[in-house]
Write a structure and sequence with these properties.
The chain is α+β, with helices and mostly antiparallel strands and 213 residues long. Helices cover 31% and strands 25% of the residues. It contains four helices and seven strands. A four-stranded antiparallel beta sheet has the order 2-3-6-7, covered by helices on one side. The longest helix has 23 residues.
């Protein structure tokens, strides 16, 4: 009897040990590694947009900088009398801009290479400023249209009166600026244009008392 009880107890002890071992083992398909972290990777900072350059008008310290280029208005793109008149107004707005920033790139796009009056009266003074590292302050042309008419061969003639403000030219030497007087009395002027590739081009400009090119 004692031997039988011991046998039963031995079986129970062995069975208990086996059960404990099974409970401590990892089941198939389970991982003993710690769960992955749920935190997202840090995001890269979004670069901020560069600030736009600050526009600066010409003054005693230097020429104009970062000024908006006058845009050709839609009216000036038309092959009509009104379109030719609108172009002449735009052309002298562009001349004002070119003088202030000391750059003729845009003005040359709308000027015929054969326009000697344009070169002598508008382009060469700005080229001289570039060559001498000088700049002009205060010059503003104003064109008041009197009459506009279309001509043959895609051309137009625009009659207008011209005035301009007084100006000063500085050369950076800290010396006195050269002063140029205003033209307050209107000057009768005529612009001859040609319509080429969808836009007007200035062929010549004649001021009162001048001979045509």
């Amino acid at each position: 009897m004692r031997n039988g009880r011991m046998s039963v107890i031995g079986v129970l002890v062995v069975a208990s040990a086996v059960l404990t071992a099974c409970q401590g083992a990892t089941s198939p398909g389970e991982s003993s590694a710690p769960p992955p972290s749920s935190s997202a990777p840090p995001s890269s900072p979004i670069p901020s947009a560069s600030p736009s350059p600050t526009p600066k008008h010409a003054d005693e310290n230097g020429p104009g900088e970062n000024l908006p280029v006058p845009k050709l208005p839609d009216a000036a793109k038309e092959h009509t009398e009104k379109g030719a008149a609108a172009f002449v107004e735009f052309y002298f707005d562009l001349a004002n801009y070119s003088s202030e920033v000391r750059d003729t790139t845009e003005l040359e796009r709308f000027t015929s290479k054969d326009c000697k009056r344009c070169e002598k009266g508008l382009l060469e003074p700005i080229w001289l400023l570039q060559d001498t590292e000088s700049w002009e302050v205060g010059l503003v042309y104003k064109a008041k249209i009197t009459k506009s008419e279309l001509r043959e061969n895609n051309r137009a003639q625009v009659i207008f009166s011209m005035t301009y403000s007084g100006s000063k030219v500085f050369d950076g030497s800290n010396g006195p600026a050269k002063t140029f007087p205003a033209r307050e009395k209107p000057v009768l002027s005529v612009a001859s244009l040609v319509f080429h590739e969808g836009r007007w081009i200035t062929e010549t400009v004649v001021f009162d008392g001048q001979e045509p090119d």
